[in-house]
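Q: Got a minute? One more chain.
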Amino acid sequence: MKNDVRKILVFCVASSLFLAACGRPLPFPGLNNDEVYALGVQEMEEARWSEAAEAFDFVLFSPSFSRAAEARLLLADAQYEQELYIESRGQYVRVIERWPADTVAVHAALGICRSLAALSPIPERDQTFTRQARLSCRQVAADFAGLVIGLTASRLADEMNLKLAEQDYDTGLHYLKRNLWDSALLYFETVWTEYPDTEWAPWALYQMIEAFGAIGYQRDAETTRDVLLEDYPDSDPAQLLLEDGNR
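A: Always. Here it is, folded:
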């Protein structure tokens, strides 16, 4: 009797994806893999991301399915739309690893960039994902320069760069308000040298002038003032300097 029960349990576990006898209905009764895939595509078009992901996940269990590359990519896209960014990144990576020469790999590369960018937190938090996103997006932008994919990746890389600059600028302000001049100057200089094209660079120079003045480094303050006015003449910090000088 025990052996019979055990055999039934093993049979049920092995057949759980297909048989209703174990208490789980057939997920797509009467449909073959191609039809389930088509259903998943339709669900994507109707923004039913969870249902689409279920369909693509189902067909990927069949090793003989001829459109596995597309299904894996669409599964990743559906997960991304559900804000399952860690999961979508993993699926995009699998696409590239298994089909590196296929056209799906191009879209998967952008998918990794987008997933990491979506994982990037507010500037006050750890920016590990932001740095990973910037690296990934810059690579995609370089590989597909001039194409829509490359332009999208470049925009995301710029957004990550701006966020990293903002974090360093905020950290500099934190030290400046506490009269920790050396630490403040270190972060402001980092913003200026590593993120010169961001809006935070002229503000960092502006704060450096204040810090140098506070510790009596007038020559450094004047040099920094000249750099700000020469390199960022139309910026708000430059205008503030000019207004202060005219008072």
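A: Residues 4-24 have pLDDT under 50 and may be disordered.
Q: Perfect, thanks.
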